[in-house]
Design brief:
With 224 residues, this protein is an alpha/beta fold. Helix content is 40%, strand content 12%.
Length: 224
């Protein structure tokens, strides 16, 4: 019997492949100390990590993007984050096994993220992942980032597969929107940084996965 599983697997980075919230929370608390403020618990900013540093500044310092000081606070946050980008960040439990099983089939995988390359590349290097991927598309790799389909189409070209033969897994609505617009099969990473206000059931993904182990089982049976 021929193996008809997808030809390529792509994942969002923050909140899907890697739990980066601890290092972003640590960077936020360094800024808070500089501002004479007490530390906040990681749980307070965890739901917004997938939306980038600007959202972390708003959630953790109470300064909206349009308010004075937001840009300067964001720059300081990102500088702190870059200096300690992989102190606590790790693959979500169970994903190492899923990826090893996927790689054993000889199929490519990669990352498509809105995280700028100045953070994406050092993080993947520090975690020993960079050399294993067929495609890494950061938020500034192309003129347009997710939810535009271009990043996923670019990843498919790099991996040598047709979009319809690939899967994209993400934990934010823009991930699913980008995947659908590019013609990929899509899955919600329910273990990621979902906000209580999010309604992933309305995003149009093929499946909502609760754990990385669910992803492994879904990939194994995705020929159906």
């Amino acid at each position: 019997m021929s193996d008809s599983r997808p030809a390529a697997l792509f994942l969002d980075l923050d909140g899907t492949l890697v739990d980066t919230a601890p290092d972003l929370a640590a960077a936020l608390n360094r800024v808070r100390r500089e501002e004479g403020l007490p530390a906040v618990d990681e749980a307070e900013v965890r739901p917004v990590v997938s939306h980038g540093g600007g959202a972390v500044v708003t959630a953790g310092l109470g300064v909206a993007p349009e308010e004075p000081g937001h840009a300067e606070l964001l720059a300081r946050l990102l500088d702190h984050y870059q200096r300690d980008i992989a102190r606590h960040s790790r693959l979500f439990p169970g994903l190492a096994e899923v990826l090893a099983e996927w790689e054993a089939t000889g199929r490519p995988w990669g990352v498509v993220t809105n995280k700028p390359a100045r953070f994406t590349e050092p993080l993947l290097e520090a975690l020993g992942l960079a050399g294993r991927m067929a495609a890494v598309v950061s938020g500034d790799t192309l003129p347009r980032a997710k939810p535009h389909p271009d990043p996923l189409l670019h990843a498919c070209t790099a991996a040598g597969c047709a979009p319809a033969a690939a899967i994209y897994v993400g934990d934010a609505e823009r991930d699913i929107a980008a995947g659908l617009a590019a013609g990929l099969r899509t899955a919600v990473a329910g273990w990621g940084y979902l906000d209580p206000a999010d309604r992933p059931g309305d995003w149009g993904a093929e499946v909502h996965l609760t754990t990385p182990a669910d992803l492994g089982r879904w990939l194994a049976g995705s020929a159906a």
